[in-house]
Amino acid sequence: MEFVLSLLVLAAAVAVIAAPLRRGRAPDPAPDAEIAALEAPKEAKYREIRDAELDFRTDKLSGADYRALDRALRAEAIELLRQLDAAREAATKEGSCA
Q1: Distance (Å, whole) CA 98 – CA 94
Q2: What is the dihedral of CA 28, 29, 33, 36, to 10 degrees?
Q3: Considering the entire predicted model, what is its pTM?
Q4: 3-class state of residue 93 by DSSP
Q5: Could you tell me which residues come within 8 angstroms of residue 34 by beta carbon, excluding any fewer than 6 positions away?
Q6: Which pLDDT tens digit goes with each residue over 63-89?
Q7: Residue 56's CB: how many other CB atoms inside 10 A?
Q8: DSSP 59
């Protein structure tokens, strides 16, 4: 009885682990190089914004300096987001044409 139960547990584990291999892989669109190239700078810009906020809260930046820096960083982030949206839209159009 114990042996049969062990075999059932082993069979279930193998089935769960092998499930992705049994499924036919759908053509997973490879991430567009342009999108990937824009994601890293976007995240870096977000970190810069958070760092500036922390510097302001810890009195490392004056209010005027913080506002100027924040305005510039957010403008750069918005531009990156626009570029990222355009790249995603282009990738979507390419995918629908195929």
Answers
A1: 6
A2: -70
A3: 0.62
A4: helix
A5: 87, 90, 91
A6: 999 999 999 999 999 999 999 999 888
A7: 17
A8: T
